[in-house]
Design goal:
Order of helices and strands of chain B: HHHHHHHHHH
Largest sheet of chain C: 7 strands, mixed
Oligomer: heterotrimer
Number of strands of chain C: 11
Number of domains of chain B: 1
Shape of chain B: globular
CATH class of the largest domain in chain C: Alpha Beta
Largest sheet of chain B: none
Order of helices and strands of chain C: EEEEHEEEHHHEHEHEEH
Strand order of the largest sheet of chain C: 1-11-10-4-9-8-7
CATH class of chain B: Mainly Alpha
Strand content of chain C: 15-25%
Number of domains of chain C: 2
Number of helices of chain C: 7
Structural class of chain B: mainly alpha
CATH superfamily of the largest domain in chain C: P-loop containing nucleotide triphosphate hydrolases
Chains: A mainly alpha (about 250), B mainly alpha (about 250), C alpha/beta (about 280)
Shape of chain C: globular
Number of strands of chain B: 0
Distance between the termini of chain B: 19 Å
Strand content of chain B: under 5%
């Protein structure tokens, strides 16, 4: 199956889902379920208001701090735990448990520690994203064939050199997957944080819309956020594939 | 059964708890921020002896169980279905891969609209969260079936249904088990997060309510409950997984 | 052991045995795989005619990709020929594995989720045999294949050679009248293969079954078989069938006999040009 046909199939599927959405909307009436076109129209209206743009910016600021934070913390911990087998073995089930925990229950604790400002939301994002990244990176490193690391010793490299020139490149595909998954959940973490404990940001707007049954805004904001998240995801996926092709 | 690693883990947890306890008692951490673990534990015991709280907890656990069960069954059959149509699978791939980026919680009001209030929309959230993972695990399992398996089935004159049940299902079991683990984890997250942000009952709601009422004691008791539940379930699944794995890999 | 090494090896290129002696008759069989994806149709077998005689040990050798496995699949009922007929015990095989056929595959076909005992008992349990009979047959197979100490082990805990022994034992207990083996020892080291060859000969003598073995190891074919069919490069067809005249009570020690080298040389002289054809094609 050529990639051209596959891309075409994806487009067909997307169009089909949109058509189903449109159909359901017409069936249920646009008060119950807003149509795709109605959503775009409402979104366009929102994007023209200053307040909405300010909220978007607020969310972006939190994301811009949370994502690099999660990646840095996650990759460095993942590398250390991956290289030191014993530590990795001991901590892995604990990390899996932490990954499986509903992070939302820690939100009140974070708020108690950080207060109600943007640092709280950044922390939410980070605690969501850091665990999958650590797990993926750890596994990627542990899956490096031992012969690769043995060859490194033959070159008399220092630890730092080994990590930067051999370990990281060898584990890069797995690291990229972890970064992609971690970024996605970090975005969600920030959004959910804003839904629970903020007076600004897209999450706050979403919560307000939910509380006031403003269906049009709910769908518009959800679509906007999804589009943003999907684009970032797609970009990281393309980057992953590009890197894999070169390795 | 508890290996050396398990002992070290227990030790680390114990160390953390003791350090936290001392930090709280000696005033390094304000008791308005974090309460000592011993008090958290006492709070948990209080919660467990309160009938009203127990019924809330029971509701949450039931929702989680139902969500995990539905995810496993629906995900399994959907996985088989999508696996059988390679074009559909390829077209769905970008969606499955980016699924965890979607803010499903935003559509919660829609669920209420369709299913009414109460448990159903919460269960639906838990199911939607974990469905792709179970589907992917099922598809992986089917991918990894050794081709020689169906030949062996022919030699024993097994019908397709018999082959599916007695050969393919056991062969794919490790992958399915992984899918079930994820289904359980996502059911937990989906149910509790929905309760926390969007609903009026259950453990998740209880945590948020306690926070908003400045009842840090109850709040931490409930948080501890969730942590212990997830840790215990995860440990059981981990041990079971290890035991199965020792039989199937060298 | 008396040997007949001084008699020159007889080479036949057609097969004319009286019909009661014939266990499986392959007549003018062709097999073409339809075009798929980017590649065109593949003609795997072109006009194969030969008879597998009762209780004989027949080996098939040939260059890679020549259609040996396809032939085995067809003879075992795992596929249908595009042309020609295959009869098993005077009845046509219609794309279904006949009763009394056992197959040992190239890949590891042991069931990873069952221990050795349950693996071996699998076919018996499905076949509705009673518990006592199952116990008898499985115990016998365990002893015969030297697996008694491993009855409770899982395949993943065993070496490749032992896993193949489990597959052979699983086939054994069904008391097949014909046993097909598709490069069963391909992944094993030479020493293990020689020993497994001995086990195969023991199996053959004890069960009286007809055996068709596909192997790429010429010395293995020369050592084990009564007759050796040499297949051409794709599309496959028998170019020669060599008779070895080994006594039934043979073991791997035959490799020391003079005639052994002659047979192996005979096989290779036919096979060499076919192998080069096959290699040039890749």
């Amino acid at each position: 199956m050529s990639s051209r046909q596959r891309n075409l199939d994806i487009v067909w599927l997307a169009l089909f889902l949109l058509a189903v959405w449109q159909g359901l909307s017409m069936l249920a009436g646009s008060d119950t379920l807003i149509s795709p076109i109605g959503t775009m129209r409402h979104l366009a209206e929102l994007l023209q208001t200053e307040r909405f743009n300010a909220d978007m910016l607020e969310t972006l600021r939190a994301i811009a701090a949370a994502v690099p934070g999660a990646i840095l913390l996650g990759v460095s911990c993942g590398v250390l735990l991956g290289l030191h087998h014993r530590s990795g073995d001991v901590t892995e089930p604990m990390l899996v448990t932490l990954y499986a925990l509903p992070k939302v229950i820690f939100y009140p604790i974070v708020l108690l520690i950080c207060g109600l400002g943007i640092s709280a939301r950044i922390t939410f994002g980070i605690i969501h994203g850091v665990f999958p990244i650590i797990l993926f990176v750890m596994n990627a490193i542990r899956n490096i064939r031992p012969v690769t690391l043995r060859s490194a010793r033959a070159f008399h490299l220092s630890n730092a050199q080994t990590i930067s020139t051999i370990v990281l490149p060898a584990a890069l595909p797995g690291i990229m997957t972890g970064v992609r998954v971690g970024t996605s959940v970090t975005l969600l973490g920030v959004l959910i944080g804003e839904m629970f404990a903020a007076k600004h940001g897209l999450g706050f707007r979403l919560m307000t819309a939910i509380d006031s049954h403003d269906q049009a805004s709910i769908v518009a904001i959800a679509v906007l956020f999804s589009a943003f998240a999907l684009i970032i995801n797609a970009a990281l996926l393309a980057l992953s594939r590009r890197i894999n092709r070169d390795t | 059964m508890i290996g050396r690693d398990g002992v070290i883990r227990a030790f680390i947890v114990a160390l953390f708890v003791v350090a936290l306890e001392l930090a709280c008692r000696f005033g390094m951490i304000s008791k308005f921020t974090i309460i000592p673990p011993s008090q958290m534990f006492a709070s948990l015991l209080d919660i467990l002896s309160s009938k009203a709280e127990l019924s809330q907890i029971g509701t949450s656990l039931l929702n989680i169980f139902v969500a995990a069960l539905l995810t496993t069954i629906i995900g399994f059959f959907l996985g088989i279905g999508v696996h059988a149509v390679p074009r559909l699978r390829a077209a769905l791939d970008p969606l499955m891969v980016s699924y965890n980026a979607l803010p499903l919680f935003a559509f919660y009001p829609l669920f209420i609209l369709i299913l009414g209030v109460g448990s159903p929309p919460i269960i639906l959230m838990g199911v939607l969260l974990g469905l792709p993972s179970m589907m992917l695990a099922t598809m992986n399992g089917l991918d990894c079936l050794p081709p020689v398996l169906s030949k062996v089935g022919s030699v024993y004159h097994m019908s397709p249904m018999s082959q599916a049940l007695r050969l393919k299902l056991p062969a794919a079991a490790p992958y399915l088990f992984n899918g079930i683990r994820l289904a359980i984890a996502y059911a937990f997250i989906g149910v509790i997060a929905s309760e926390f942000i969007l609903s009026g009952s259950g453990i998740g709601f209880g945590v948020g309510f306690a926070y908003n009422s400045f009842d840090t004691r109850t709040m931490y008791g409930l948080i501890l409950l969730v942590v212990i539940l997830v840790a215990v379930i995860n440990t059981l699944l981990h041990v079971w997984d290890r035991r199965l794995e020792s039989r199937r890999t060298r | 052991m008396t040997s007949t090494i001084d008699r020159p090896v007889r080479v036949v290129s057609t097969d004319a045995a009286p019909s009661e002696d014939v266990h499986i008759a392959v007549k003018d069989v062709h097999r073409t795989y339809p075009a798929r994806g980017g590649s065109g149709a593949i003609e795997a077998l072109a006009s194969v005619t030969f008879n597998l005689r009762r209780s004989e040990f027949f080996a098939v050798v040939g260059p890679s990709g020549c259609g040996k496995s396809s032939l085995l699949d067809l003879m075992a009922g795992l596929g249908r020929p595009s042309r020609g007929t295959i009869t098993f015990e005077q009845r046509r095989i219609e794309g279904r594995v006949p009763d009394g056929v056992g197959i040992v595959f190239q890949e590891d076909a042991s069931f990873a989720w069952l221990n050795v005992y349950d693996n071996i008992a699998f076919g018996l349990r499905r076949g509705g045999f009673d518990g006592a009979e199952i116990g008898r047959r499985v115990d016998h197979a365990l002893r015969f294949m030297g697996l008694v100490d491993f009855a409770k082990a899982y395949p993943a805990q065993l070496s490749g050679g032992m896993r193949q022994r489990v597959c052979i034992a699983r086939t054994l207990v069904m008391q097949p009248r014909v046993i097909f083996l598709d490069e069963p020892f391909g992944a094993l080291d030479q020493q293990t293969r020689l020993l497994m060859g001995d086990e195969l000969l023991r199996l053959w003598r004890e069960t009286g079954a007809s055996i068709l073995l596909i192997t790429h190891a010429l010395d293995e074919a020369a050592m084990l078989a009564d007759r050796i069919g040499i297949m051409s490069a794709r599309p496959g067809r028998f170019i020669e069938i060599i008779e070895t005249h080994w006594p039934r009570e043979r073991t791997s020690e035959i490799v020391a006999e003079r005639g052994f080298g002659a047979i192996t040389a005979r096989i290779w002289s036919s096979l060499r040009s076919e192998s080069m054809k096959s290699m040039a094609r890749r």
